[in-house]
Amino acid sequence: MTEIPPLMWHKSSYSNGAGGNCVETARLEDEQTAVRDSKDRGGPVLAFSHRAWGDFLAAMRGGRLG
């Protein structure tokens, strides 16, 4: 398992203070975006290329998923 150094995590602007379903993201040095569950900060972290993460967000905003 790869260790991830301390990161500057950012919670989604769509999150509320009620502890809803939220994700946090952080930029990695190797042109990747780390993603984790804000309710399980010590849990698993996924990493995506900046482009793949941007494409995912664009698809979500455009209603092309789910």
UniProtKB/TrEMBL annotation:
Pfam family, one: DUF397
Lineage, opening ranks: Bacteria, Bacillati, Actinomycetota, Actinomycetes, Kitasatosporales
Protein name, as recorded: DUF397 domain-containing protein
Superkingdom of origin organism: Bacteria
Start and end residues of each DUF397 domain: 8-61
Organism from which the protein derives: Streptomyces coffeae
